[in-house]
Structures are given as structure tokens and as C-alpha cells.
Amino acid sequence: AMTHTTAQPERSSRAATARPTVTLTGVQPTGDLHLGNYIGAIRPLADLAGDLTRDVYVFVADLHALNSRPDPAVLRERSRRLVAALLACGLDRPNVHVYRQSRVPAVAGMAALLNNVTAKGLLNRAHAYKAAVAANVAAGRDPDHGVNMGLYSYPVLMAADILALDADEVPVGADQAQHLEIAVDLAQQFSRSYRPGVLREPRALIAQTTATLPGLDGRKMSKSYGNAISLMAEPDDMRKQIRRIVTDSTPPAQPKDPDTCTLVALLRAFADPGTVAAVEERYRTGGIGYGEVKARLADAIDAHVAPMRNRYQRLLTDPAELDARLARGEQNACRRADRTLARTVVAMGL
Ligand code: TRP
């Protein structure tokens, strides 16, 4: 099922060529994936990759992660776990290329070149930087307090990720829409300043809000809200987390509205349609308690996640296997990015 809408119309030239559609996205290694990441981003990406006319490039944005200055050992470990999780969640397939951004030097090279077609004023207006400035001003500090160039030029590096890999389409959450606009902007600026046909303008695939999952407290599941259920938790821990989901105090016998219940929303994401329909019916007629729904939800999630968790754990205990997958992905990504960088360098007169 497609969970993305296209923000721009399909380019008509595409249909005429047999070249695969190149789909690219990056994930920051900020901590372990939760169920919301899986339903909102990873599973939709695996669905896109199920279409074999696509070549999918998915990378760990480890260079981006540096702007918050994580401990080196922590960053390295998070990157590894993220690679293992991506591979375990349906992205270990021939038309998917998993890589670490830092292992594709042409990306950093592209960012250095793009700096010269990036207006400083454009970056002044970027949401993340503006939010940091607003927080500083509100606290009576220097506007740029704690802001490093990694944070400030984050959108340039992201444009480099996309443009270097010559991507056609970029699936992202709504929070990344401005970053995609900046990437398109820089490609257009480059075409005007040098020549067209060197850098491809990417198309944004913005995730629909229906793909967002509620967390323990009913708000959108998010690491920053502290309401997340971790994707790769051990079964006992997973059940414990599910029992903590907040529900109201309607007694089992009384009818309930399935459309406002966090448990049903989660069940819809993981259980088969028959199970969901049966539970929804018992909500409307009355006669089902939240404890029972939680048990069914835990069963459904476990059935779905168990094979992925097993694969994840095997990959983490088999570094050679993980490294082999990365070597292939990184070689393919480098080949592609090197080609784009070579064109760009020449177009700029180097
Ligand atoms: N900024 C993205 C995020 O925080 C991650 C990212 C980095 C990315 N580079 C990218 C996403 C390129 C898509 C394309 O979610």
C-alpha cells in the first residue's frame, strides 16, 4: 500500500526511459528505532522497494548526526544497530543499497561545491536553525549560541546527499518538506548559474499523516515525547510496554468508539483485517476490555516483529555479514556519487 503522496507531478520524460526510478532517503542514527519509525518510514520504504522498477538508496546519516556532537563510541554503535535494523526490516534485497553517508566521500565533496550556490539568507530561514535562534533569543542569549556550522549548513549536506546520488524521488516525513524544497532550490540555482542537465531536481514524496502511529500516551509516537515503543524490544519487554498504553476507564461491558482508541489504531497497523474488524465490532457492541485488546495487540505485534527481531539479532552478532552488506551498498553508492561529482566539478570549471 502506498503511504506517500507525490508533491509534484510525474515528469513525463521518465515513462520513455527504461532507467529505474532512483528512490533515496536517509535516517539519522539518533537511537533505536521505534514502532512509529517502522510504520511511518521503514515499512513504506520497503513497500516502495517491492516495486522492482525502483532502485532504492537508504543511508545512515552519520555526518548529519555529528552536529549534536555525540560520543564517538555511541555514534558508531548506533550506526551499526541502525544498519542491522534497516536490513532486518525488509530492506535486505538486491534493489536496495544500504550505506553509511560518511563512507561516500563524494557526498561531502558535493556539499563543498553546493556551498557556493547557496545563499546565506536561505539557510537563515531554515526551520531548525530558526528554532535554535528563537530559543536563544527567548533565553536572552546570543542568537547563535551553541549553533555550529554543521547545524547551520545541515540543509546543504542534505541537498548533497540527494543531488550526488542523482535521486528521482525522496520519501520523507512532513517535517523534512522544507529541506527537500532547499535541495530543489539548489539544483535549480546550479542549473541557472552553470548549466542544466548536471544536477537532477528531486521530487518529494511526503508521508501522509495516516502513517503516523500514536504512542503510549495517545500523542504521535516520538522519541522526543518519551512515548515510544521500541521496535526491537524483547517479547517480555514489548508486552510490558504495551500494558503501559494509556486508555480511559470505560468498563468492558460498555460500548466504546474504536476510532478514538490508541489500542485500535496500533492494532490496525499490525493485525490482519479480520482481527481488526472483529475487535472493532466488539468495541461498538460492548463486551471487550482493554486488557484483552492489549493482549491481542501484543500477539499481533510480536507475530509481525519476531522474524525481524531475529534477523536483527543475528546481524548484530555476525559483523562479517553486516560488513558484506555495507560494502556492497557503499560501493554502489560511491560509484553513483562519483559520477555526479565528476560532472559537477567539470561544469564548475575545476
Ligand atoms: N534530515 C533527515 C531527517 O532528519 C535525514 C536525512 C539526511 C535525509 N539526509 C537526507 C532524508 C536525504 C532524505 C534525504 O529525517
What would you note in describing this structure?
With 350 residues, the chain is mainly α. The chain has helices spanning 13-16, 35-49, 62-65, 72-91, 105-114, 120-124, 127-138, 149-152, 154-164, 177-193, 235-243, 262-270, 273-285, 290-316, 319-347, and strands at residues 4-6, 21-27, 54-60, 96-100, 169-172, 203-207. The strands form 2 sheets. Strands 1-6-5 form a 3-stranded mixed β-sheet, with helices on both faces. Strands 2-3-4 form a 3-stranded parallel β-sheet. It is globular. The protein starts with a strand and ends with a helix.
Helices and strands in order:
Elements: E1 4-6, H1 13-16, E2 21-27, H2 35-49, E3 54-60, H3 62-65, H4 72-91, E4 96-100, H5 105-114, H6 120-124, H7 127-138, H8 149-152, H9 154-164, E5 169-172, H10 177-193, E6 203-207, H11 235-243, H12 262-270, H13 273-285, H14 290-316, H15 319-347
Parallel strand pairs: 2-3, 3-4, 5-6
Antiparallel strand pairs: 1-6
Bound molecules: tryptophan (TRP).
Residues 24-26, 28, 61, 64, 158, 161-162, 170, 172, 176, 179 line the site of tryptophan.
Describe, in short, the structure shown.
The protein is mostly helical and 350 residues long. The protein has 15 helices and 6 strands.
Rg = 22 Å
Please summarize the sheet with the most strands.
3 strands, mixed
Cα-to-Cα separation, first versus last residue: 46 Å
User: What would you call the structural class?
Assistant: mainly alpha
Count the DSSP helices.
Answer: 15
Low-confidence blocks of residues:
none
Bound molecules: tryptophan
User: Got a strand count?
Assistant: 6
Shape: globular
**What is the percentage of strand-forming residues?**
5-15%
Helix content bin = 40-55%
Order of helices and strands: EHEHEHHEHHHHHEHEHHHHH
Residue-averaged pLDDT, rounded? 94
> If strands are numbered along the chain, what order do they take across the biggest sheet?
1-6-5
